[in-house]
Amino acid sequence: MRHSTRIAVGPVQFRIGSDWRAPIAALGRLYAGYPQDEARPADATVRLFAARPWRRWLRPSVQIGGDFVVPDALPLPLSMGLLAAEMGMNLQVALGWRRHLLLHASAVARGGRAVIMSGESGSGKSTLAALLGEGGDGGEWRLMGDEFTLIDPVSGDALAFPRAVSLKNAAIAEVAARVDAARLGPLLAGTPKGDIRHLIPRADAITAMHEPARPALLLFPRFGGAAAIEPMGEGEAFVRLTEASTNYVALGEAGFAALTRLVREMPAFGISYPDSASGMALVEQLFAEAVR
Amino acid sequence: MSAIHIFVDLLAGRREAASLAPREWDGVITVARAEAMLATLAHWLKDSGLPPSVAALFADQRAAVAVARTQSLWEAEMARRALASERIEFVLLKGTAYAAAGLSCAEGRQIGDLDILVLGIDIGRAENELLEAGWEWVKSDPYDDAYYREHMHELPPLIHKARDRMIDVHHTILPQTHRVTPDPLVLMAEAVETPTGFRVLSPPAMACHCAAHLLADGDLQGGLRNLWDFHCLVGDFLKDDPQFHRTLLDEARRHGLSAVVRRALRLSNHLYGTPLIAYEEPFPLRYKAERADDLFIQRLLARDDWGRPTHFALHQAFYIRSHWLRMPPLLLTRHLWTKWRKG
Fold it and tell me: How far is A292 from chain B (nearest CA, A)?
């Protein structure tokens, strides 16, 4: 393809090719601080292409392709090429990665112990993880990831997948107020998921991306309503995580064993919170109890 | 050298994995994935001189395909239980059959749907039993449904509502409207039993079906994988029957598949190095290349290093050819008209 780049996030080496320069350049800015290994073969390939030759210049629209594709995925305008690249990368991992159990969850770690937060889009899991990762509460958290958390089926450890954090809508202003503007990507307004702006994780989170953490606490955040904690049984946590995993079924018995062990090893809670500060306080409180 | 050529050379053993430059793996992994053969490559290369990250990826693939194999054999067991009460005899076809029979092409092979062959007279009862056991129709379109029932060699596809797996119930191995119509009765009668108690086609019939499926029933989508199946089948069966080429061509002649099987042998020899043995007696069997072979090879290798299909016109030509082979002109015209009207 005309333009291409290579990016390593956690254990996955990506190769991204594009018909246009802009998405590759934008990725280059976001991922400049990530370790580069030019000689390492790619595990996953993403293609950003024009469905028809003239759509390269005429109302350019970006189709997302690669090793794995979703049929009937809608193309995005070139102004959202960065989002297309990010969606393409997520798709390859979600459908193709088999080494670990994949959870659609954000995670932060401290002292080698991880808090895993799972929930629907809009539950606030990404925002909470991003704010904690910024040392939002004075606690020294390491951001492990905002979208995927990987569980090693052999050791039971959680592994990081610290891609650029995808901040949405109200979270953009909240995070932008706390970080250096150089660590934010361009504002992508009016995408199918609302406004999006990417946050480059802190350098120490990127450096430590290969360090595993023991799962200590599982949370299902729900943004909105009064602050509340609801203990959750192993059974419910298990079923919810099967729904939050993109490869649980494909892994067969290994997936079942990994997930059973995971929900038995760490307590699970549903939490609701009216604002980020109280959300972070709940995480701190429950984490302190869990690792005692 | 393009990635797809390197990929084929690796499988054929014409090239050592250790000789690849690190960045050559990008394209090889991508095209292998696009051809649904990454786990196959992973199996046949094991860990011979691979970069560490490729070795790790290949180990993932081998583990994933082992799970998929268990699931597909379980699906075959489910079909057996569903059809047992009515004592409906069935034969496994394609991927599941290779796995059940423990053939070498099953190593690392992905298995999609469960394909089974039942006799035409049993098809109605088989359908009822499967519906009773939780399979449901996939196609809701009345025209498609009617087309399948009237002209095809299988029931419209069924999917199991709890396990989400497809089953294709065939009553012969090529569409009834195809220019060649192999005899399913003979195929069923000569089927053999596997150690686990499933029935599969006899070795020459299995290789014939593989060649027919590759060259006579479709536009060569997934052709490299089907040809690899064929290559492995021939290799496996030669071990038990040194005269297998003759056995195979004998079988092919009974079903009207001589030309198809000869072409499959030539193509798999060209790409994967399948041994060819010529005979003069009892009938001449030679492997003189035909002009069209090059087009087939080109079509099979029409992928770039990013996994994208190339040679658009060639793809289209093979697509049209597949319809031409499967449908008499009048039926084809009617079919296209109906499809066009429905948009």
Answer: 36
Note the pTM of the prediction, 2 decimals. 0.94
How much is the pLDDT for A138? Answer: 59
Q: Do A253 and B51 touch (CB under 8 A)?
A: no
What are the Cα distances from residue A120, in Å, to A147, A173, B59, B213? 11, 21, 32, 44
For residue A136, pLDDT beyond 60: no
CA B232 to chain centre: 12
Question: Given an 8 Å threshold on Cβ–Cβ distance, is B51 in contact with A41?
Answer: yes
pLDDT band at B326 (very low <50, low <70, confident <90, very high): confident
For residue A63, CA distances in Å to A122, A191, A265, B8, B230 come to 25, 15, 42, 29, 35
Domain boundaries, chain A: 3-96, 101-291
Using a CB-CB distance cutoff of 8 angstroms, which residues of chain B are in contact with residue A42?
Answer: 25-26, 29-30
Kindly state whether B5 is in contact with chain A, defined as any CB-CB distance less than 8 angstroms.
no
Decide: A48 and A66 in contact? Cβ < 8 Å. Answer: no
Return all residues near A184 (Cβ < 8 A) that are at least 6 apart.
Answer: A176, A197, A198, A199, A200
Rounded Cα distance, A114 and A218, in Å: 9
Residue tagged 């000789």 (tokens):
B19
A47 touches chain B (CB under 8 A): yes
Which pair of tokens denotes residue B310?
């190339």
- Across the interface, do B57 and A43 touch by the CB < 8 Å criterion? yes
**Cα angle B77-B82-B83, degrees, rounded to a multiple of 5:** 100
Peptide bond just before B282 cis, omega within 30 deg: yes
The arithmetic mean of pLDDT across residues B19-41, rounded, is 97
CA B185-B188-B192 angle, to 5 degrees, is 155
B227 to chain A, closest Cα gap in Å: 21
User: Which amino acid does the sequence have at B249?
Assistant: L
Nearest to B104 by CA among B9, B245, B226, B233: B233
Question: Could you give the 3-state DSSP secondary structure of residue B158?
Answer: strand
> Which residues are B91's β-sheet partners?
B117
Q: A174 and A136 in contact (C-beta within 8 Å)?
A: no
How big is the A-B interface in CB pairs under 8 Å? 60
> pLDDT tens across A137-176, in order?
556 999 999 999 999 999 999 999 999 999 999 999 999 9
Any CB–CB contact under 8 A between A17 and chain B? yes
Least confident range from A253-262, B28-37, B260-269, B331-340: namely B331-340
**Secondary structure element (H or E) that encloses residue B104, with its range:** none
pLDDT surpasses 90 at B217: no
A-proximal residues of B, 15-74, CB under 8 Å: 22-23, 25-26, 29-30, 33-34, 51, 53-54, 56-57, 60-61, 63-64, 67-68, 70-71
Q: Does A257 touch chain B (CB under 8 A)?
A: no
Quote the strand ranges of chain B, DSSP E.
91-93, 114-117, 135-137, 158-160, 166-170, 192-193, 199-200
- A250 contacts B67? CB cut-off 8 A: yes
pLDDT at A139: 65
For each of the domains in chain B, give its residue range(s) and CATH number, in order of start. 69-182+191-200 (3.30.460), 202-343 (no CATH)
